[in-house]
Amino acid sequence: MILSDKDILKLINENKLIIEPFNREHLGPASYDVTLGNEFIVYEDEVYDLFNDLNYKRIKIKNSILICPINYNLTEEKIEYFKEKYNVDYVSKAILGTTNEYIELPNDITSFYQGRSSLGRLFLTSHQTAGFIDAGFRGKITLEIVAHDKPVILYPNMRIGQLIFFKLNSPAEIGYCEKKNSKYAYQRTVMPSLIKRDFIK
Fold first, then answer.
1. Residue pLDDT, tens place only, 8-60
2. Binding-site residue ranges
3. Which residues are catalytic?
4. Residues tagged in the binding site annotation for dCTP
5. What pTM does this model have?
6. CB atoms < 10 A from the CB of 194, how many?
7. Where does dCTP bind (predicted)?
8. Is 36 in contact with 61 (CB distance < 8 Å)?
9. Nearest CA to 151 among 69, 90, 83?
10. Phi and psi of 105, rounded to 5°?
11. Domain ranges in the chain?
12. Beta strands per DSSP E along 24-181
C-alpha cells in the first residue's frame, strides 16, 4: 500500500517515520520531495576494480555544480569556460550526490526514490539503479547523477527527487540497519560504492 500525505504526516507525528529536516510544503499527495545537498563524490580510477578500494575525491560546493553527459568532450578549456560563464563551483561528468534529508524508516515501511519529472524532461537522472530504500534504513540518500543530453547546472537545496513510501504486510524481522552486513547504515553524507566488502570473507 502506498502511503498518502495523511499517512506520512501521521507517522511523522508519531515519530515512527523520521525526515530531518521536514518541510510541510514538500509533502505531495503520496510522496515527499527531497533536496540536493552540497557534498559530492567524483571517482578517479581509470577502471573500477571491485576487489580493491576505489579512489575518489569529495567535493563541497557553495553555489552550483555543472554535470556533463558521460560522452561529452570535457576539456580543461571547457571546464574553465563553464566556470567563468556560469559561475559554477565545479564541473564534472557522472557524480555521486546526497540528499539534505536524513530519514529513518521503521521495519514495516519501505521507500522508493524517484527523480523529479521536471529533471527527467531535461534528460537528467538522479539515480541509476538504486532507488529502493529498505525497511529499517536510517541515513541520507546517495544519488547517482548523470546527464544524458546536454550539461545541466544543479544547485544545493533544490528539489531533486521524491520519496514514495510503502506499508509492508508485516514488519521485517531484521531491518536494514540491524543487519551486520549493511554497508550504508546511518550514512550522514554522500558515500562511495563499498562493493569491495562483498569479497571480504
1. 999 999 999 999 999 999 999 999 999 999 999 999 999 999 888 899 999 99
2. 116-121, 134, 142-144, 162, 176, 183, 187
3. 144
4. 116-121, 134, 142-144, 162, 176, 183, 187
5. 0.92
6. 11
7. 116-121, 134, 142-144, 162, 176, 183, 187
8. no
9. 69
10. -100, 135
11. 5-192
12. 32-35, 39-43, 56-60, 65-67, 90-92, 95-104, 109-115, 124-125, 132-133, 138-147, 152-154, 159-167
Name the strand (E) or helix (H) holding 13: helix 5-13
Interval 52-103: pLDDT, tens = 889 999 999 999 999 999 999 999 999 999 999 999 999 999 999 999 999 9
Instruction: Note the pLDDT tens digit of each residue in 4-20.
Output: 999 999 999 999 999 99
Query: Residue holding cell 564534472?
Result: 92
- Identity of the amino acid at 2: I
Select from 160, 154, 153, 142 the least CA-distant residue to 98.
Answer: 142
Q: How many residues does the chain have?
A: 201
